[in-house]
Specification:
Layout (H helix, E strand, L loop, with lengths): L1 H59 L1 H14 L3 E7 L18 H4 L4 E7 L3 E10 L7 E8 L1 H52 L14 H73 L4 H29 L7 E3 L1 H11 L1 H6 L2 E8 L5 E3 L1 H18 L4 E12 L9 E9 L7 H4 L19 H11 L3 E6 L5 E8 L5
Parallel strand pairs: 6-8
Antiparallel strand pairs: 1-4, 2-3, 3-4, 5-7, 8-9, 9-11, 10-11
Length: about 475
């Protein structure tokens, strides 16, 4: 209803200006006419009396003429009629109430009518009509009419204007309110509700279209927009599903490629316990061992079998394709499992793998298989970068960071750093590092998808990856994962 009040206020101001201006002009015109009528009536009465008084004065004497004037006062309640002499030496009660200097024209035989405030009774209209009764002295009839009637007329006119304006405003406001509710407020409420539904994802074109006015045109436009948005949303949704499926396939392929790269080292890792199992079983079959020695061989065989089972389970878990499934994970244990799985590959490359922890590392809700894939990829890259061997350190720490490109306050992130002592990364390669299919490895040793997939996984978890490297001084990949996942 705020719009209604604005429109109504504008209408009130407009009506007040129009009616006020019109009323003022009408009032001025009527007051002018009223004054003119009063002046005309007073002059008419004065001329009529002047003839009678002049005749009576000449025929019957001054006493009869003054008696006629007194009789006129009795009959006329609005007018006060007096006889006045237009000379400075005149004594009361025949002295004019208007100063003599303003009555020069009357002394010359002309009628005048003017308004003046008296000190005793307020505003009056004084009309003077000359009467020729004495050649030596100038006399006139003075007609005094109170302006109270004019003030009453003035008050009634203003009151009528106020009542008329108030009635028009009331009627106009009522009609405006009714039609505003019917033709503006109801359609606006529909558009507001529809806009809210569109913001919530409801893109159904269900706005009613009636009439041919602007609201009907807007409803048709919104319905058309909803249809196009729904079609676009559906196309984007389908394309998104296809991209997700392709991305999952790429991740799966990269995981299998990684499994293939570590299979050689895994074969050696499995070969050691299998040789122990084979040797101990041959010793038992000879029957030359004592009972305690047989028990010891059985225990060693069981331990090595469990070791083989654990290695194979880790490999299968890593290679198995799964949808993202977050759960609270102990990152120290997760990193330890990845390092253990890659230990044989590292030994072959003469690389020492170390885990460094700073402070208490909290559990974080992540998809363990996806994060394990990221860690495996980065550690394998570090191992392959150290052609002459060296030390690769994986460090864990909780730090307060601000996400790059975001204006939010600092938040707690788990920082996972993988630092190697390899050849480093050239500056021209840094900007292409996370592009799909970009690789600096020899043909057949890398797909160029590992870092791109790793970045996508980390970003899906609300984090990011930074890289610091100088040619010949190794590289450090930093993974930042939020400690508290936004709901």
């Amino acid at each position: 209803m705020k719009l209604f009040y604005k429109v109504y206020l504008f209408l009130i101001v407009l009506l007040i200006l129009v009616l006020g201006g019109s009323g003022y002009l009408s009032y001025q015109r009527e007051i002018t006419l009223f004054d003119s009528d009063m002046e005309s009536d007073a002059l008419l009465i004065g001329r009529a009396l002047s003839g009678l008084i002049e005749h009576a004065w000449k025929e019957s004497g001054p006493e009869t003429a003054l008696t006629l004037i007194n009789d006129a006062n009795i009959k006329e309640h609005q007018l006060k009629v007096r006889w006045v002499w237009l000379e400075a030496s005149t004594e009361a009660p025949y002295v004019p109430q208007v100063p003599l200097e303003r009555l020069d024209k009357v002394a010359q035989g002309k009628c005048i009518s003017l308004k003046m405030n008296t000190s005793e009774e307020g505003a009056y209209r004084f009309t003077y009509v000359p009467v020729d009764v004495d050649e030596r002295h100038a006399g006139a009839i003075e007609l005094a009419e109170s302006q109270s009637l004019r003030m009453r007329y003035h008050y009634d006119s203003l009151l009528h204007l106020v009542y008329t304006t108030a009635l028009l405003l009331l009627l106009t406001g009522s009609l405006l309110w009714y039609h505003f509710q019917k033709w503006i407020q109801l359609p606006l409420n529909r558009f507001i509700d529809k806009s809210r539904k569109i913001g919530e994802g409801d893109l159904s074109p269900d706005l009613p279209v009636t009439g041919r006015d602007e609201f009907a045109h807007l409803a048709r436009t919104l319905n058309s927009m909803c249809e196009k948005l729904h079609a676009t949303y559906q196309a984007i949704h389908d394309e998104h599903k296809q991209r997700i499926a392709a991305l999952e396939q790429l991740r799966h392929n990269e995981r299998l490629a990684t499994v293939g790269r570590i299979s050689t080292g895994m074969a050696h890792e499995l070969g050691t316990p299998l040789n122990v199992i084979s040797g101990r079983s041959k010793m038992i079959r000879t029957g030359e061992l004592e009972e305690t020695e047989v028990a010891e061989c059985s225990r060693i065989i069981g331990e090595q079998a469990e070791r083989v089972t654990r290695i194979i389970r880790n490999l299968l878990d890593y290679a198995r394709r799964r949808l993202p499934d977050r759960s609270l994970q102990d990152f120290e244990q997760m990193v330890s499992r990845v390092l253990e799985m890659l230990s044989s590959t590292a030994r072959k490359a003469k690389v020492n793998l170390d885990l460094v922890k700073t402070g208490q590392i909290p559990q974080i809700a992540v998809d363990p298989m996806q994060i394990q894939q990221v860690l495996t990829n980065l550690i394998m890259n570090g191992i392959q970068a150290m052609n002459r061997g060296g030390r690769l350190v994986v460090s864990l720490a909780v730090e307060q960071r601000c996400r790059p490109g975001a204006e939010q306050m600092n938040k707690l992130y788990l920082a996972i750093r993988v630092k190697d002592e390899g050849e480093g990364i050239e500056k021209e390669d840094m900007k292409h590092l996370f592009e799909p299919f970009f690789t600096t490895k020899e043909i057949g040793k890398g797909t160029g998808l590992g870092l791109s997939i790793a970045l996508g996984i980390v970003e899906e978890h609300g984090g990011w990856i930074d890289v610091a490297s100088e040619p010949g001084q190794g590289a450090c990949f930093e993974i930042f994962l939020p400690v508290e996942v936004d709901q």
